[in-house]
Give the backbone structure.
Amino acid sequence: MNIKILPGSGESQVTPPAPANAGTHLKLPSVDRLLGDPALADVVATIGRPLVKRAVQETLEHYRRSTDSQTPAQDALVAQIRERCCESVAPHLTNVINLTGTVIHTNLGRALLPKEAIDAVVRAMGSYNALEFDLVTGERGDRDSVIEELICRLTGAQAATVVNNCAAAVLLSLVALGARKEVIISRGEQIEIGGAFRMPDIMRAANCRLVEVGTTNRTHLRDFEEAITVKWTFQELTID
C-alpha cells in the first residue's frame, strides 16, 4: 500500500520527479539567449537581472519537465517570462471583504486601523525617528519606552513590551518567569497557536514543566489550588 504524506504547516512540498521522456525532445534556447532578448530589456532594467534570470530558469524548467510535443517559439517563452516577472514583484497581500461574521479575524488581518493610526505610521516610516535613541541623554535608548507607558495605562499592567504574536508572548513570559518551574494549565487550553506552535512544545522550549489540570470542557478553581506546589510559578495561560 502506498501512503502519501502531505507536508504540514511550514514544511516544503517535495517536487515530484519529471516523466522519463519529459522535455528531452525540445530544443529550448539557453538562459543567456533569453536574458539577452531585447523584449526583456525593460524588465531587466526595472526589477533587475537576478529576478529575470530566475523567471527564465523557471520557465525553461517547466518545459523540461513537460511532455509537450512542440518547442515553443522564443516570443512565447519571453511572454511567459514577462508574466512570471510581474507575478514575482506583485504585492502578495490582497484586499478582501470580510463576510465571516468575525470582526477581528486573525486570518484576515485582525482589527482595521483608523485613519489617524495609519497616518501616524506613514509619518513615522517616512523619516528617521528616535525609535531607540534617548533625546535627553544623547545615548542609545529603549524602544519599549515608546509604548510601555501607554500599554500599562490601558491595561493596568506593571510593565509591557510588544512582540509579533501570542506564541512569542507566551514563550518570552515562560522563559523570563517560569524556566525550570511548574506551569499549571487547564486541559482546555492545550491548544495549537497559529499554524504550528503547540502549547506543550512552547513549554518544553522554555524549559518549563507542564502541569495539566481540569478537563477539556471545564476547569474549576480548586483544580488549580490542588496542583500548586513549591515549584509552581504560573497559573493558567489563556490565549485569545
